[in-house]
Amino acid sequence: MSLALGRRATLGAALAFPALGAAWAQQRFDSLFVFVPAAPGGGWDLTGRAIEQAARTAGLVGSFQFENVGGGGGMVGLPRFVNQRRGQANALIVGGSIMLGTGITGKSSVTVRDVPAIARLTSEAGVIVVPAASPYRDFAGLAAALKANPGAVPIGGSVAGGIDHVMLGLILKALGRSPRDASYVGFQAGGQNIAAVLGGQVQASISGYSEFSEQIKAGRLRALAISGETRLEGEGSDIPTLREQGVDVTLANWRGVFGAPGTTAAQQQALASLMGAIHATPQWKEILRTRAWADAFLAGEAFARFVEKDIADTEAVLKDLGLA
Q1: N or C: which end of the chain has fewer CB within 10 A?
Q2: Contact present, 52 and 304 (Cβ < 8 Å)
Q3: pLDDT tens-digit series, residues 113-128
Q4: What are phi and psi of 300, to 5 degrees?
Q5: Is residue 157 helix, strand or coil?
Q6: DSSP string of 169-206?
């Protein structure tokens, strides 16, 4: 699983398509359809909008069309994309590690194996937050409560079986408790997760830092721990890692894009070339900085191999945690 995928995961594009190189600078699409299998406002939606922002500014794409279909950690939207966009050379679907876990736990008939891997873009550590008025002033307090009675501490995150659920399971295991004892509340959209922790429906929540950043900066949420191997750079650098606080767990949530089934190798290569050109822009680098996303770029066959390994690793972890 992408347990160790962090800021050091940045990979040169030459690893994926050594023959493309400078071709990335000339790649341009008149239009691009971006399917987001989640509600607006979450990490996948932010990724899609970031692609639009960087591509438009650099003049790499003429126009964008977006479609959001949330539910099931991507498993509601993915079949729709597969069925409706087959053979469409300018179509992309945003996805990531959450989709792998939900596909496994839900025994979905359509998975990421049904769409060609185009490019991995970012990696983001998870953060554990509590409301500003929470009695848990630091992670040690929350860890003590979880160790004493995990069922009495409801914790929110993405849908069941997703990376946030896995993270809680790994934390409980590190604390000497069974992951099956967790009181986990899964939400279909990032906005629901934020509302739940702010409203006291759950005592803590887990998600990527970017989804909580505005609430953390505003003082409405307090960040207790980050799941990366190292602390964030810049904004959020004051949040200690789980390892710093005695819990040997690291986990990263990668996000990327996939193409439509039925497209040719040349069409898939053109999309990967476009993503390489977007990745090379100063606009994309600024987006990574402001959102505290790690650069995890990987394209084409190299990305496809990564996805296959991550599926196998994810399945092994979910079985170990009693989630598959």
Answers
A1: C
A2: no
A3: 999 999 999 988 899 9
A4: 65, -140
A5: strand
A6: HHHHHHTTS-GGG--EEE-SSHHHHHHHHHTTSSSEEE
* Domain spans, the chain: 2-123+252-320, 124-245
End-to-end Cα, the chain, rounded Å: 15
Strand partners, 252: 125
Contact 272, 299 (CB under 8 A): yes
Q: How far apart are CA 321 and CA 245, in angstroms?
A: 22
Cβ count near 178 (within 10 Å): 12
Q: CA nearest 260: which of 56, 67, 11?
A: 67
Domain 124-245 has CATH 3.30.390.50: no
Question: Taking 60 as the threshold, does the pLDDT of residue 12 lie above it?
Answer: no
The pLDDT of residue 20 is: 42
Return the C-alpha torsion angle 283, 287, 293, 297, nearest 10.
-20
Going by C-beta distance under 8 Å and a sequence separation of 6 or more, which residues neighbour residue 205? 128, 129, 130, 155, 156, 157, 193, 194, 196, 197, 212
Domain at 2-123+252-320: CATH code: 3.40.190.150
**Residues with Cβ within 8 Å of residue 5, at least 6 apart in sequence:** 123, 252, 254, 294, 296
The answer, as to whether pTM is greater than 0.85, is no
Q: Which residues contact 202 (CB under 8 A, 6 or more apart)?
A: 154, 155, 156, 185, 196
Q: Residue 21 pLDDT more than 80?
A: no
Number of residues written out for the chain = 324
Selection from 267, 261, 244, 274 nearest residue 125 by Cα: 244
> Is 186's pLDDT higher than 50?
yes
Taking alpha carbons only, the member of 236, 256, 248 closest to residue 303 is 256
Q: Are the CB atoms for 154 and 202 separated by under 8 Å?
A: yes
